Amino acid sequence: MNSKRATARTRLVLTLTIAFLVGLGTLSLGLGRLVLDELDTVGGKASERLTWNLAQVQFSHIKMTEIAYRAKEGENLNVFRLEFAKYYNRVATLHDYPMFDEVRADGIVAEKFIRIQNRLDYFAPIVAGPDRDLVKSLPELIIKFQQNDSDIRDLIRYGLQMETLLGAESKQRVSLTIRRLGRVLLTLVAALAMTAIMIQRLFHHSQGLIAENRATAERLRVIVDSSLEAIVSVDVSGRILSFNSAAEKTFGYLCKDVVGRRLMDVIIPEHLHQFSEDNTASFLKTGDGELINKGRTRVEAKRKSGEIFPIELNVTASQDGDDLVFVCFIRDITSRIEGEKALRCARDDAQAGERAKDKLLTVLSHEIRTPLNGIMGSIELLETADTRSQEQQYLRAMRQSGELLLHHVDEVLEMSRLESAAELERSEPFDLQEMLAGLIDGLHPTAQSGGNLIRLRCRLPEDAHCIGNSKSIRKVLQRLIGNALKFTERGEVTIEVERLAHSDAVEFRVCDTGEGIAADDLERIFDDFVTLDASYSRQQEGTGLGLSITRLIVEQMGGEIGVESEPGEGSMFWFTLSLPLVSSRQNQHPKMSIDDVAARRILVVEDNDINRMLLEEMLLRQGHRVRCATGGAEGVEAVQHERYDLILMDISMPGLDGIEALGQIRSRKLAEGVEIIALTAHGAGDDQRRILDAGFTEILIKPVTLAKLALAIDRYTGQKTPIKMNHEGSDIQQFIEALGNEKAQGYLNALCRDVAQFRQDLGASEQVSQSHQREAHRLAGSAAVLGLTALRTCLQEIEAAAAGSVPPSDALADAWGEAGVILGPYLVSSPVNAGISQAFFPPGSSA
User: Fold this and answer.
1) Which end of the chain is more exposed for a tag (fewer CB within 10 A), N or C?
2) What residue spans define the domains of the chain?
3) Over the stretch 810-844, which tens digit does the pLDDT of each residue have?
């Protein structure tokens, strides 16, 4: 780059110098011509000097006078006329010739010229007239000529003076021009000398540049030859100009064998010939092509052996003087492709392993939890029967063992869910102080059973409302406090909660006075399947996953967890989370009454009776006006006749489903500016993306709680509700609280009868029918509301089963048995519960 700049500067200086020399040469030629012109002018005046012309006039005057005297006698008149004409013409020349303008410019001289000319003009007609008149006028003419004599002498005197002056001026001009010419010639000589010096320097510099270019070319040749990539250059006709060593190794040709041959005939496979020709032609015509100057592209090439192999190609157009050259950088990526293939295989194997793991966990969940739930449900039913004291003792032992085994299975499943990066529930406003108080109150009986004292110390602002995942925080604290109580006997467990100054961070500390943890165990305490020695565990049972699960939950919330311990002194587990403060007035209104709430018009589109009834009851309790539609078509019709503030729409509905109903509402512009929220039991990521892509504003996963419902109304209508955001409890408890005990019991018993009838119909059929699928869909919605996950999953599988498939009666029986364990406690007190046992376990069932 520097040599190019230096060459450009040298060329510029040389060009300017040559232009300067040309200018000096032109100027010297002009001055030389000017000198010659001056000399010619001086020479011309020498031949036509003023005094000489005046002398000729005087000579003619004298001669005229003599001839006039002789012509008195009438002789020589014609000679007189001829001499008069000469005299007249010479005077006229002095008067009219431009050469004598400077003389005539003098006033006295001009006056004399006029007098002489006037006398001649007076006698000119007489001289040209008859001889008689001429002879008669000769005396007068002689007198006039004598008058001219004095004027002519004066003119001669002035002429001599003027000639001297003009000669001096001409000499001065010639001298000045010669001096200028000399200076120009000296400058020209100096410039020529400088040019010679510059040319000499340019010659030496060019020799250096030639040497430098040779060295650069040699370096480039070495670089190209030693490059790991094949480099091939071709001209616009596609003929090979260069072929480096890497290209020889890659393609199996020698450079001397391919230079001059067409690239297409050497390394381009036949199926790419047309593509290569079209690409080159397009670039030459428009300056754009699919390969040239487009960066790296994966294509195929051909070796000398005929083998087709993958390459990475980068083609660059370069200007070599007036010629266009294409430089091809080629890399054999056969090994990379094979490596990528191996990586894909490894990834597929890993994914298959993950799927196998998930399948195993699903089997664990179903094949272990289902019989366990059946056992636990049977034990619960037996405990209510009239049994002897010793039998009750056996039943309690069975229950404790079953609960412990179920707890272990749940821990394994929870660990898998966290490791698969399953999303935690969305952060919502909650009262941290109230949540902590409720948690500690619930743990007092456990602490007392071990002779322990449990304390809560909070350093929180007066308004402790914050935004976070309260359920996950509760889980972490339950596990840490439970661990502390389990490994502390007749001691003290203290829970400290402090909001760190000038930040959103809150630190939780669980301190116990147990035996403590050895220093060597602190680094692995949060690892999977770690249980410590007897000095700390005191032979406590467990899978060793509790603290590992706790760590994963904290990390998924963006927090940090740690432990400090001294053997014999106790332990302190701590974790820190970001929990931004939020005003309770903005998020919770416990003192607000329904009368204070501006009623909103809300449309609920839901085909499931229980879901529809539950949503309606929740919204009515919040003071809203509700209209219900039992399907998508009815929902579309409803928005045609009334304006709503918010629409809640189920997704899976027979006939017109939620996505289709939304499409009709939006395309027909029936609810402009109204948000439509999806209600669904499908929580998978793909399902949620499909629903949101369809145009729903948000998704509420069933079962929908009062808190989630109130927050949604608040977000999209500006409505503030008097519902507390930290409402806890099981789905069935919320269901009963929402509807009232009597009404809820009626629906629960009706659900039991409907499921029993469905099982009976399904068992009596040899294949799944459309009526079975419709009923399964309806019952799955009810199961979702009540939190009966296994039953809902089984019913959804029946709904999605292929037409004509074998009914999964056994799977439904297992799922319903698990549901019985969950529903049993809420049905025992019902006055209409007669025969409920048969609803779960009809006569003849294996249960």
Assistant:
1) N
2) 2-210, 227-332, 338-419, 428-578, 588-715, 739-840
3) 888 888 887 877 777 676 444 334 344 444 544 44
